[in-house]
Design goal:
Shape: globular
Order of helices and strands: HHHHHHHHH
Number of strands: 0
Number of helices: 9
Radius of gyration: 18 Å
Structural class: mainly alpha
Low-confidence stretches: none
Number of domains: 1
Strand content: under 5%
Distance between the termini: 23 Å
Helix content: over 70%
Oligomer: single chain
């Protein structure tokens, strides 16, 4: 299975580098969103607004980045893919690939916010760990939702309707973790938030691994 996951992952990476239009579109969306906030606020926002805008941009960019994850695997070339690869290999490779994309989006967004508004973070390491863990959580949740939306007739609407309520608790946790990162909070509080993200990753990846094969059968 590992060889198949590696093959599918490299295939997705090569496909996006050969045709980087979608990646450039998402990157432009992140940069423009940051700039619009900069212009609207005259470059002055408080720390809580910094955190809130940061994660909102990442959340909506993540939905756009993962929307067409299974356009080939579940639609145009579904029979070909499922003849050569197991559904579990497909979903795990997509989760890994989307995680990498979302980490890059988060880094770009952090660079933009630091350039326009400065960096109010005190604990940069914990914030970086939060970005990595949240990217994995978003990738696993949105990859499964993307598969469901591709199977339906109203894919884009269903993607938004399903993803926003499910991701809302994650957004609250990330805002809370980020607020701790701009203050001198104890390590125990930060550790609890990190443990929550780790547990959430285990649950979401397990759900993808278990439920995606049933989605492919329909």
């Amino acid at each position: 299975m590992l060889k198949k996951i590696k093959f599918l992952l490299l295939k997705d990476i090569k496909k996006n580098f050969d045709n980087p239009t979608s990646l450039f579109t998402i990157a432009l969306n992140v940069i423009c969103s940051s700039y619009i906030i900069y212009v609207a606020s005259f470059g002055i926002i408080d720390n809580n607004s910094w955190i809130t805008f940061f994660w909102i941009i990442i959340f909506f960019s993540s939905i756009n980045a993962t929307y067409l994850s299974f356009e080939n695997e579940l639609k145009t070339q579904a029979l070909f893919y499922h003849f050569l690869f197991s559904s579990k290999s497909i979903i795990l490779s997509k989760v890994i690939f989307n995680s990498l994309i979302l980490i890059l989006i988060s880094i770009l967004n952090l660079i933009c916010f630091t350039f326009f508004f400065g960096n109010p973070l005190v604990n940069n390491f914990v914030f970086g760990v939060g970005i990595v863990l949240s990217s994995i959580s978003l990738a696993s949740i949105l990859s499964l939702i993307s598969g469901i939306s591709i199977k339906s007739n109203n894919g884009s609407m269903l993607m938004s309707v399903l993803s926003l309520p499910i991701l809302f608790p994650l957004l609250l946790n990330l805002i809370k973790l980020s607020e701790f990162c701009i203050q001198e909070k104890s390590e125990n509080i930060l550790t609890n938030e990190i443990y929550f993200l780790l547990l959430l990753n285990v649950v979401t990846i397990s759900l993808c691994y278990i439920l995606f094969p049933y989605l492919c059968k329909n």
